[in-house]
Amino acid sequence: MALKLERVDLLAKNNVQTLTFYEVLNAFWKEVYLTKTIPLERALQFISFIREVIKHMYVLDVRGLEEEIFKVALEFAITPYDASYITLAKRNGLILITEDRKLRTIARRIIESYSLEELLSKEN
């Protein structure tokens, strides 16, 4: 979302988890392969740009947290993938920024969580 808003500045020095880059790759794959809404070369340019942006972020690793993630997933009836975001935010004392409304609602039961738009309006 920060990229769509052309607010790359919001990403620098913030946190991201290792799986996020693959989530971005998946989104571009859909755009190129399934919906054919962007050409391959443009997607590759975006991917290269995102790789550079991530170099200026703190990458959080889920390794070693598998049991905790699994327990959170079971407790809140969500996937371990979604639970990994909540677990990392909680463990690191972070606010979870997500555009996934369901995840945000569940996360708010144990941590602070906002959409990017909510966060930006809160800061103003």
TrEMBL record:
CDD domains documented for this protein: PIN_Pae0151-like
SUPFAM superfamilies in alphabetical order: PIN domain-like
Keywords: Magnesium
InterPro entries xrefs: PIN-like_dom_sf, PIN_dom, PIN_Pae0151-like, TypeII_TA_RNase_PINc/VapC
Superkingdom of origin organism: Archaea
A Pfam family that the UniProt record links to this protein: PIN
Limits of the PIN domain: 19-108
Protein name: PIN domain-containing protein
Organism name: Thermofilum adornatum
